[in-house]
Amino acid sequence: MAVGQEAPAAARPERDRAGARERPTRNWRRIRSAALSYALLTVFAVFTVFPFVWMLLTTFKSRGNIFVLPPTIIPDSLFQPGMFDAYREVLTKHDFGRYLLNSAFVASMAGLGQVITASLAGFASAKMEFRGAKLMFGLLVLSLMVPIEVTIIEEFFIVFRLGWLNTISRSSFRPSSSARSGRS
């Protein structure tokens, strides 16, 4: 075939003959799929973010307007004098910094307890071979199916008997901060 000469239709690749029709169809399918994905993600994002926006807007409502029915989205004291009274009260009348540090300590101790016990349990079940290993693993998986509501009363009694109720030492070690519970 000479230079500049076009190949006969039978010699052309399949996609060249039908390419003009297939490409727009594929593009439209891709665009529709992406639009549907973004629409679903937007709906889920709104449902996820709305409680936080509601909580933030409620901080700007007066005490009488918080529980009014039907609820209002726009706060009554927004852009009014005294708009930040709730924040001022929390920061001056309560030891908010201490509460924040206690929460950070509780969360970090629970996370550390989870990491340590889950790592040890995972290593033992994956690498060590001993009689009854499969039974132990089965019991561990079975215990994950027990809801926290079943064990929370017993955990309360354990903490109460140890004298750890409403103390910071209770946060350092808790029965629920083990690998079995999977939650902290």
What does this structure look like?
The protein is mainly α and 184 residues long. Among the domains are: 18-58; 113-172, no CATH class. It is 65% helix and 0% strand. The chain is built from seven helices and no strands. The chain has helices at 14-58, 63-66, 85-93, 96-127, 133-144, 148-161, 169-172. The radius of gyration is 31 Å and the shape is flat. 2% of the residues are buried. The mean pLDDT is 79.
**What's the SSE pattern?**
HHHHHHH
Instruction: Write down the overall geometry.
Output: flat
Distance between the termini: 75 Å
Strand content: under 5%
* Rg over CA atoms: 31 Å
Strands, count: 0
Secondary-structure-derived class = mainly alpha
Mean pLDDT figure: 79
**Helix count, DSSP H or I runs of 4 or more residues:** 7
Low-confidence stretches: none
Biggest beta sheet attributes:
none
Query: In percent, how helical is the residue content?
Result: 55-70%
List the defining traits of the structure above.
65% helix, 184 residues, mainly alpha, 0% strand
Briefly summarize what is shown:
The chain is mainly α. The protein contains 7 helices and no strands. The chain starts with 13 loop residues before the first helix and ends in a 12-residue tail after the last helix.
